[in-house]
Amino acid sequence: MTRIYLILAALVVFCSCGDDDPFDLDSIFFSCNENGEPFNFELYTGLVDDCKSIIVQETFGSSATSWERNEPNRFKRTITQDGLLQESLNNVSWFFFNDITISENLYQYQIDFELEILSGPESRFHVITWGGRDRLDNFFSLGINANRELQIGTVSNSQDFETLFYLPITTSIIAGSNLITIRVVDNMNYFFINETFVTAMQKSLYGNEIGFNVPAMSANKLNNITITRFRTE
């Protein structure tokens, strides 16, 4: 019995020496899915509730002022009653990083956020980036535009943007606010628009940086950003 306690103590010490994630004894010794419910990653509701935990939730209340930025004649980010207003004031597409930080050791997570396109050329994509490293040098991106087009792509080592997936008309995209979801399960990525599955692709991510964009001479609004970590065992 003494030997068992020593082994457990050693595991606690070892697992408590990680970078950012708090030690979770349950995740080592117990399953979050004791009833054996099936996972269906291509279904928006396909995760087991007991296996999920929210790690970031931003509704842009009075405490979210760190998101606001204003550079005259360049861009403006303003908190309003119903989200974060992002405006490009010139002919530059602006990307914003470091608003959200998640652990580099997180390999199973889901990003949900609401995006409303307010103004600008209809063909320009309003984008989220994820799985990034070194900001615009390496990232994956998903964008929608006012023409109801959807585009998923990547930039690697500062090279030209590569389109990985494109839909000319996505009926899931509606006028007004759209709920966009990216579900990462190790090296698989699943994509939903308004809880409707769109596609999945197998891609190893560069890192865990997340960014948001407003296209040139355009405006959009972000709201209800939620990042959920989950387990699959």
Question: What do you see in this structure?
Answer:
The protein is mainly beta and 233 residues long. The chain folds into two domains: 1-30, no CATH class; 35-230, Jelly Rolls. The protein is 8% helix and 45% strand. It is built from two helices and 15 strands. It has helices spanning 2-15, 25-29; strands at 52-58, 69-71, 75-80, 83-88, 94-97, 108-119, 126-133, 138-144, 150-155, 162-167, 177-185, 188-193, 196-202, 209-214, 219-230. The strands form two sheets. Strands 1, 2, 3, 4, 6, 11, 12, 13 and 15 form a nine-stranded antiparallel sheet that branches. Strand 3 and strand 4 (83-88) form a beta hairpin. The model is unreliable at 4-20 (pLDDT under 50).
Descriptors for this entry?
Jelly Rolls; six-stranded antiparallel β-sheet; 2 domains; mainly beta; 233 residues
- Fraction of residues in helix: under 10%
Count every helix, treating DSSP H or I runs of 4 or more residues as helices: 2
Give, in order, the helices and strands: HHEEEEEEEEEEEEEEE
| Integer average pLDDT | 89
Secondary-structure class:
mainly beta
Could you give the distance between the termini?
28 Å
Strand content: over 45%
CATH superfamily of the largest domain: Exo-inulinase, domain 1
User: Spans of 5+ residues with little confidence (pLDDT < 50)?
Assistant: 4-20
CATH fold-level label of the largest domain: Jelly Rolls
What overall form do the CA principal axes indicate? Answer: globular
Give a short account of the largest sheet.
9 strands, antiparallel
* Count of separate structural domains: 2
CATH class type of the largest domain: Mainly Beta
Radius of gyration: 20 Å
Count of β-strands: 15
CATH architecture of the largest domain: Sandwich
